[in-house]
TrEMBL record:
The keyword Transcription regulation applies. The keyword DNA-binding applies. Keywords: DNA-binding, Transcription, Transcription regulation. This is AraC family transcriptional regulator. Residues 177-274 form the HTH araC/xylS-type domain.
Length: 294
């Protein structure tokens, strides 16, 4: 078990049942690096110590204490330490449904909202995000829900607009979308790039370029991310990690462990155990096991 002192890595990724549509991650990472990946929902992260470097399409941001990182759904990104001491942060992962609900309550936008900034200096919002975590860990549903909706409304009011969409000119966009659909359908037994291109009537290089332009990562990287996302849903439903690994196409549980921990930030066993804490109490933390290369 990690501690919250010194340079040891620790992390807790969990859900508080009284806050539906939200995942919570509080962590301190030093050597751990997140490979390129994306989320179904949004990211609202308050850096509380050190420096986090976030690699976004076309640029890198460095976030320190008092700043909040904002990432829209399906935006590919990486994360790593930007200082020798690593970084500590408290992160909210609200679903698209939760964001749309708050946006409708405050009468902000029609349609799906999206953040227009990727990093903001907002110490008050940063403190509120950490308070959401503390209230949830204490089992204080009223405070946690109040603080959550308040900080989401603040971010939407100050830093939101229509959710942007990634487009690819010409036929490449359609081919990339078709390739993604094939990979989703055949997640456990995907074709090679050459086979996939032949099925879609294009060349491997043209498909690779179109896929990168549309989704911000090559097909094999997207596939690993998609497998981890599917594994998360299986673990949420109570599937043992070994069964989830086979179901999504990983060769074995260690293979799942390695990629899951790199992308999610905690091992699948710790992730599944937190889902079993139905009362939302017990502020346990788990030491990560993937500080080294994959």
């Amino acid at each position: 078990m990690g501690t919250e002192d010194g340079h040891r890595e620790w992390a807790r990724h969990w859900r508080y049942p009284e806050l539906p549509g939200l995942d919570l991650l509080r962590a301190h990472y030093v050597r751990h690096t997140f490979p390129r990946h994306a989320h179904d929902g949004y990211v609202i992260a308050a850096v509380t110590g050190g420096i986090e470097e976030v690699g976004l399409p076309g640029h890198v941001v460095r976030a320190g204490p008092g700043s909040v990182v904002l990432i829209n759904p399906e935006v590919p990104h990486t994360a790593r330490a930007g200082a020798p001491e690593g970084w500590a942060y408290a992160t909210l992962y609200p679903s698209s449904g939760l964001i749309a609900e708050v946006a409708a309550e405050i009468g902000l936008l029609r349609g799906t909202p999206g953040f227009t900034a990727d990093i903001v200096a907002d110490p008050q919002a940063s403190r509120t995000i950490t308070e959401v975590h503390r209230a949830a860990e204490a089992g204080n549903a009223l405070a946690a829900d109040t603080l959550l909706r308040g900080v989401v409304a603040r971010m939407l009011t100050r830093h939101a607009g229509p959710l942007p969409t990634r487009t690819v000119r010409g036929s490449g966009g359609a081919e990339a979308a078709a390739a993604r659909a094939v990979l989703e359908e055949r997640l456990a037994d995907p074709p090679s790039l050459e086979q996939l291109a032949a099925e879609l009537g294009t060349s491997p290089f043209a498909l690779l370029r179109a896929f990168r332009d549309r989704y911000g990562m090559p097909p094999h990287t997207w596939l690993t991310d998609a497998r981890v996302r599917r594994a998360r849903r299986l673990l949420d439903a109570g599937t043992p990690p070994a069964e989830a690994a086979v179901a999504v196409g990983f060769t074995d549980q260690p293979h799942l462990n390695r990629h899951f921990t790199r992308i999610v930030g905690v091992p699948p066993g710790a992730y599944r155990r937190e889902r079993a804490l139905l009362d939302g109490r017990g502020a346990r933390t788990y030491k990560t096991h993937s500080a080294g290369p994959a």
